[in-house]
Amino acid sequence: MEVAADHGISSSPTLEKPATPHQPRAPRPNYNLIHALPLPLKTYPLPAFIPHNPLSVLHLIYVYVSQNVLSASSHPATTFKGLFSSETGSIHIAEPSTARALWEAGFYGKGSLSRSEPSWVEREKKRLGILAGQTSEDATRRRREERKEFKNERARKEREAIEEKLKQEGEIEVFSDSDSQDQSIIANKDAKGRGSMREELDQAHPALGGVPGPGTIQRQDKNFDTRAKPLDDAKNVRFRSTISDSEIRQSTSGVSQSKSDQPLEAKIQINGEIVNQEHLQLTLEEAFFLVYGLGLLEIFDEETQSNIPLPHLLSLFRTLSYFPPCSPSGLRPDDPFLLSYAVYHHFRSLGWVVRPGIKFAVDYLLYNRGPVFAHAEFAIMIIPAYTDQYWSATKARQLEVAKKEKKGWWWLHCVNRVQSQVQKSLILVYVDVPCPHDFDETSDGRSGTHAILDIGGLLKRYKIRELSVKRWMPNRSRD
Known about the structure:
This protein is of the alpha+beta class. The chain has helices spanning about 30-35, 55-70, 95-105, 120-125, 135-170, 190-205, 245-255, 285-295, 310-320, 335-350, 395-405, 410-420, 455-460, and strands at about 80-85, 90-95, 110, 215-220, 235-240, 280, 295-300, 355, 365, 380-385, 425-430, 440-445, 450, 465-470. The strands form 4 sheets. It has a 5-stranded mixed beta sheet with strand order 3-6-2-1-7. A 5-stranded mixed beta sheet has the order 8-9-10-11-14. A two-stranded antiparallel ribbon has the order 4-5. Helix 5 packs antiparallel against helix 7, helix 8 packs antiparallel against helix 9 (about 310-320) and helix 8 crosses helix 10.
């Protein structure tokens, strides 16, 4: 808010957030125990070998022999099942136990009715009074209400400070750009002087229809012709005389009762349990990694309820990565899905928790352990690189490649500025696109689509290079 300097109004006073009674926090869940497994697999590591301890050698031999004899499986007894939804372009996990297992062991997917962790049932139980405590959505809603109350209190104090300053000075200056009326009319401190000022201003500026009354501050510029436009086009800042506490409570309660936060009607069974209306949504890269990389998931067609084979699943995801979806015959080596999955598989294999980064204008976010432990450390931006000689063989290919690789400095500064504000390091990941002739594609006779049989050999052709970018600041990067 800007106020004319001629009014002699000082800047708004420094306001402190009103002290609220300290409320003990609810104990946090034991995330180290809940998210102990980085993947939804069971691992059987060998014990440490200590040379100066003979018992460690016997323990090592015993564990090695027992694991080979018992041959315990790292995979669950039954594979997880998901449904492919053509409407949302994602994979739906409807089984609550499967959704919870995928989230707790690797942070895969997000709840369809939640911000990230599928917690709609817990929120409904707490809303109905069945459970105590609060979820992450409740904590976010409470912080928003506190910020709303603080802003209302700050606006009220600023209004009172401005009104007090006006009462002390008792004058309002109005300037005109007309030569014949180039003068300032100053109101006296008493009520009579204020009324005479209004009458003189009405006579001097009939086009304005009078000046604003008490409690209104009007900002005018000498280079702005106020007679050419009506009063509605003038820039005014109006303050109400009083704001009742009931209005403040009503405005703050509107935050928690917005359309996006209104809970769905919970369907309760006869035994009193709430029917879970939420499912886990997996992105195409997450679903393909669980199917191909880990072998934990089977994806079924939502309409035919038939299992989708892995080669057909890859072709389906590649076609859906275009908008609108392209035909299988129009697939290329630089498909958006192939590039994004190659990067996703790369960082998942290195032990990072990879999450979508659309919130921060990047492709992926890398977490060390997971979102519940700490914020993401790195932001990933995928850039295709056409280093193979095939892409520079003809002039037409060179122009096409140059158009796809072109990134301006404005784009880089914008992305890097966003990441520096949220304290994340920007990583530019260059993916070398192979030659189309290196693809070993065969035609599937049943559906007529091109299915890649050797998926491992295909992914090996994509080379990944990482480049860390930091924002250069003179006061921090001096020699």
